[in-house]
């Protein structure tokens, strides 16, 4: 494995702040932000919609083939932003960030986004029952899974600082971009 940069998953229940974090982290590090939801829509990888919740049913094989065709596993420097994480092969991934949010705050964010009924309920339950955190811990080594709070702008700032420091450390440890003058 000779990746110059790490690959990072940012996951969590819809509304926890994945896009917010991924966009800012991409700007700060120069990494490529992959909004998996957007890729699924743009590339037509959806197999349909769950009638009750309205969420997309994804053709995971097609999605993985697409990701495999990117220099993700060979060069690194990708931020994968999705509300699921366990389908990405372990060997591609160096850090899994699970964003968490208080349920009152999440409720407000999701209703502002127009979520209601079953879809709202399922996502609220998922956050309260830490479904994504458990999924991440089951799919990846414990030491690469980090749970971060995303309730305020200060949280975002603090999280980004922490992750940027982690990226610098990773590059040092892996003889990566810094040594080759590609780092910040
Ligand atoms: P996701 O990508 O996980 O669905 P978003 O990044 O789209 O979540 O965030 C959902 C909404 O919540 C947006 O309006 C965003 O500005 C807001 N938000 C997310 N995280 C925070 C935070 N830590 N502090 C303040 N607002 C936030």
UniProtKB/TrEMBL annotation:
Amino acids binding ATP: 15, 17-20, 113
Pfam family, one: AAA_18
Region (NMPbind): 35-58
Statement: the UniProt record of this protein carries the keyword Kinase: yes
Leader sequence residues: none
Subunit relationships: Interacts with small ribosomal subunit protein uS11. Not a structural component of 43S pre-ribosomes, but transiently interacts with them by binding to uS11.
Protein family (similarity comment): Belongs to the adenylate kinase family. AK6 subfamily.
Summary of the function given for this chain in its UniProt record: Broad-specificity nucleoside monophosphate (NMP) kinase that catalyzes the reversible transfer of the terminal phosphate group between nucleoside triphosphates and monophosphates. Has also ATPase activity. Involved in the late cytoplasmic maturation steps of the 40S ribosomal particles, specifically 18S rRNA maturation. While NMP activity is not required for ribosome maturation, ATPase activity is. Associates transiently with small ribosomal subunit protein uS11. ATP hydrolysis breaks the interaction with uS11.
Protein name listed in UniProt: Adenylate kinase isoenzyme 6 homolog
Species of the source: Setomelanomma holmii
Organism placement in taxonomy: Eukaryota, Fungi, Dikarya, Ascomycota, Pezizomycotina
């Amino acid at each position: 494995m000779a990746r110059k940069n790490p690959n990072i998953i940012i996951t969590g229940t819809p509304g926890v702040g994945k896009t917010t974090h991924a966009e800012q982290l991409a700007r700060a590090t120069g990494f490529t932000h992959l909004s998996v939801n957007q890729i699924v829509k743009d590339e037509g990888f959806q197999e349909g919609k769950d009638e009750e919740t309205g969420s997309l049913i994804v053709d995971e094989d097609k999605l993985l083939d697409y990701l495999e065709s990117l220099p993700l596993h060979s060069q690194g420097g990708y931020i994968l932003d999705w509300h699921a994480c366990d389908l990405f092969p372990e060997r591609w991934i160096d850090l899994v960030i699970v964003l968490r949010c208080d349920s009152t705050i999440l409720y407000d964010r999701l209703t502002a986004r127009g979520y209601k009924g079953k879809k709202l309920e399922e996502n609220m339950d998922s956050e309260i029952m830490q479904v994504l955190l458990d999924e991440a811990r089951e799919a990846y080594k414990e030491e690469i899974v980090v749970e971060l709070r995303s309730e305020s702008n200060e949280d975002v700032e603090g999280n980004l600082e922490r992750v940027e420091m982690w990226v610098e450390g990773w590059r040092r440890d892996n003889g990566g971009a810094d040594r080759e003058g590609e780092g910040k």
